[in-house]
């Protein structure tokens, strides 16, 4: 099991390193509404010390840094060196001096106990093979009364951008996640993330659901965007041209119901959850 987990993390790290430029350009704007709401419900204030787990190219860490001001501190951690290079460059361009970035495994944080007032994790927890340990680490580094705020994808049926492609791949037995990969949608099931937080020792757990529409010019732009992502690109490289065409045709057919006013408007739901140490 340990070897599978290590292999999965290596595959993921390599994928995110290669995907860092496109993630920064395309995915960050799509994720921004989720991050904005996560910060709001976390009650982040000036002067706080905040940890951003799975920060990628620096969000929501950079937004948090502006919010806590010069008397506060934000630390962003990620296991992708390429993502962190982009995060540091963005911080320099924004002239932010109260934010630091560190390469780190979320399941093994190297901070002292009781260091942070808040811990945020936007769309990172569901990618972690030992999410329970990651939550335990987040709780450990919080001060008593500190708060964790996480955003995870909802059930696959409500995350249409990903669900459409996943279902098409499954139809042709082409869905092939890396060995050791967790179920990305496991925390989107009713009550799942809340149970995980309570099991991790958090109290006063609450959650809300947020749906954001991602807009594309049409099916061609959607397909081009998705196939550049690390997961679909890896899968398509392993199947025959016939299967690739069949998957694409199925995806285009599934997209028809999202056509409105000359564009594709695809809703994606996330669960935002909070817990107090």
Folded structure, characterized:
The protein has a domain at 2-156 and 182-212 and 270-276: Rossmann fold (3-Layer(aba) Sandwich), CATH 3.40.50. Helix 1 packs parallel to helix 3 (81-93) and helix 5 packs across helix 9. The protein is built from nine helices and eight strands. The protein has helices spanning 2-42, 61-68, 81-93, 131-141, 160-171, 192-199, 219-227, 230-236, 241-255; strands at residues 49-53, 73-78, 99-103, 116-122, 142-153, 203-216, 259-260, 263-276. The protein has 277 residues and is α/β, with parallel strands linked by helices. A hairpin with a 2-residue loop joins strand 7 (259-260) and strand 8. The radius of gyration is 19 Å and the shape is globular. Strands 1, 2, 3, 4, 5, 6, 7 and 8 form an eight-stranded mixed sheet that branches.
> Which shape, going by the Cα principal axes?
globular
Number of strands: 8
Instruction: Tell me the CATH architecture of one domain.
Output: 3-Layer(aba) Sandwich
Structural class: alpha/beta
Q: State the low-pLDDT regions, or none.
A: none
Total count of helical runs of at least 4 residues: 9
Order of helices and strands: HEHEHEEHEHHEHHHEE
CATH class value of one domain: Alpha Beta
Beta-strand percent range: 15-25%
Radius of gyration: 19 Å
CATH topology name of one domain: Rossmann fold
Calculate the mean pLDDT score and round it: 94
Q: What is the CATH homology-level superfamily of one domain?
A: Vaccinia Virus protein VP39
Distance between the termini: 30 Å
The helix fraction, in percent, is 40-55%
Q: Give a short account of the largest sheet.
A: 8 strands, mixed
